[in-house]
């Protein structure tokens, strides 16, 4: 197979995954956007986390809320738990990376806050622990996963929302996560500022 054929396959897979997300998750994404807007209007904050590529997406999401997405507006309360390399490496060194986010949630999370967690497989131990502690703190979960949703699928409470991207390919899952994050940011701007 020529490399140009692989490129075409990648775009084809990406387009197909986007169509599946639009067809299967549009209502759930819109609902998640409403939940985020309600949370912000209630004076709550959004904590986000993920490892690897999902960490970059967590940082991207919080940056869009802290700075701006599509318009100038006041900063919104969002913290990426993936961004503090000193905290992450300290926790990982002294305990285990599995507690990298949960320990931060113990300190920063409050009842009714939102945890937006991202994992391509839904099996990351750091996300499993994060959800456990978030539930102990009476926080709501919005997860962006892929494949079959993994271990965290069994952890959800009725108020939690799962946005599981219908793909087995990590690249397509990350692309889907980014598109969903952009939709959530747009929903927040629209819900709060009517844009």
Concise summary:
Helix content is 54%, strand content 13%.
Molecular structure report:
With 195 residues, the chain is α/β, with parallel strands linked by helices. It has six helices and five strands. It has helices at residues 3-41, 53-66, 85-94, 102-108, 125-136, 170-193; strands at residues 46-50, 78-80, 114-118, 140-146, 161-165. Strands 2-1-3-4-5 form a five-stranded parallel sheet, with helices on both faces. α1 packs parallel to α6 (170-193) and α4 runs parallel beside α5 (125-136). The longest helix is centred in the N-terminal third of the chain and has 39 residues, at 3-41. The mean pLDDT is 96. GO terms for molecular function: carbohydrate derivative binding; isomerase activity. It holds the Pfam family SIS_2. Residues 36-195 form the SIS domain. InterPro entries: GmhA/DiaA (IPR035461), SIS_dom (IPR001347), SIS_dom_sf (IPR046348), SIS_GmhA/DiaA_subfam (IPR050099). Keywords: Isomerase.
């Amino acid at each position: 197979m020529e490399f140009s054929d692989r490129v075409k396959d990648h775009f084809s897979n990406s387009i197909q995954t986007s169509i599946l997300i639009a067809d299967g998750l549009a209502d759930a994404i819109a609902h998640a956007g409403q939940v985020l807007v309600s949370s912000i209007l209630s004076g709550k904050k959004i904590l986000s986390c993920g490892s690897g590529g999902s960490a970059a997406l967590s940082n991207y999401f919080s940056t869009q809320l802290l700075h701006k997405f599509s318009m100038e507006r006041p900063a919104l309360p969002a913290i990426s738990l993936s961004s503090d390399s000193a905290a992450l490496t300290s926790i990982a060194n002294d305990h285990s990376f599995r507690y990298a986010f949960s320990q931060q949630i113990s300190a920063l999370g409050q009842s009714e806050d939102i945890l937006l967690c991202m994992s391509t497989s839904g099996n990351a131990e750091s996300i499993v622990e994060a959800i456990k502690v978030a539930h102990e703190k009476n926080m709501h979960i919005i997860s962006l996963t892929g494949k079959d949703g993994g271990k965290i699928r069994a952890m959800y409470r009725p108020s939690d929302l799962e946005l599981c991207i219908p793909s087995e390919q990590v690249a397509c899952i990350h692309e889907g996560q980014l598109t969903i994050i952009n939709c959530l940011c747009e929903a927040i701007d629209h819900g709060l500022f009517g844009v």
